Amino acid sequence: MASTADFRNGMCIEYNNQLYFIVQFQHVKPGKGPAFVRTKLKNVSTGKVIDNTFSSGHKVTEARIERRPHQFLYNDDMGYHFMNAETFDQVPINKELIDAPQFLKEGLEVEVVFHADTETPLMVNLPQFISSEVTYTEPGVRGDTSSTNSLKPATVETGATVMVPLFVNTGDKIKIDTRDGSYVERVKE
């Protein structure tokens, strides 16, 4: 059992017979009345984020989770298949549990979060940045923009579309932020 004093971002708790990750929390001590903790909780199974308030000192059950390195193999109608990097066991995982499935490519190292008691996968975390080759984009023409921050769509090797600056061409390798799918920089060969 953990109390509200033990809360931290990323902590997994059992609440209303479901698993939640603490996305954000704030201890509040008003001038009148008792202290409380305002939280944002993300449901592990649905991905829905809810707001909840716990009274200070409230006891919650902390769920034991384990983070294990896996390698993405392939996807089919059974789901996305990952291989444990240590035991070589393969695990099929539903698309809903993956942070950014559009950026998965064969051989990518990811982190799979498991519920330690039931051995069920809870979520798949991709690396914060990945590099990918641009397979198609319209050529950027010099002087066709009035501002310096113009972007154009580009398709990368995984099939995802990313907005990139005009100087990026087909065949370039780019660095992508997997949290929001944004272009970071062109990768030097």
Describe what you observe in this structure.
It is flat, with a radius of gyration of 21 Å. A hairpin with a 5-residue loop joins β8 and β9. The protein is 0% helix and 53% strand. A 6-stranded antiparallel β-sheet has the order 1-6-2-3-4-5, with no helix packed on it. The protein has 3 domains: 2-62, SH3 type barrels (Roll), CATH 2.30.30.30; 65-125, OB fold (Dihydrolipoamide Acetyltransferase, E2P), CATH 2.40.50; 129-186, OB fold (Dihydrolipoamide Acetyltransferase, E2P). The model has no long low-confidence stretch (mean pLDDT 88). It is built from no helices and 16 strands. With 189 residues, the chain is mostly beta strands.
Quick tags:
189 residues; mainly beta; SH3 type barrels; OB fold (Dihydrolipoamide Acetyltransferase, E2P); 3 domains; 5-stranded antiparallel beta sheet; 16 strands
- The oligomerization state is single chain
Widest sheet: strand ordering: 1-6-2-3-4-5
Globally, the shape reads flat
What is the overall pLDDT average? 88
Under the CATH scheme, which class of the largest domain? Mainly Beta
Please count the beta strands (DSSP E, at least 2 residues each).
Answer: 16
Contiguous helical run count: 0
CATH topology of the largest domain: SH3 type barrels
Structural class: mainly beta
- Our Rg estimate from Cα atoms comes to 21 Å
Short summary:
With 189 residues, this protein is an all-beta fold. 0% of the residues lie in helices and 53% in strands. The protein has strands at residues 2-3, 12-15, 18-28, 36-43, 49-55, 59-62, 65-76, 79-84, 90-93, 109-115, 120-125, 129-137, 151-156, 161-165, 173-177, 182-186.
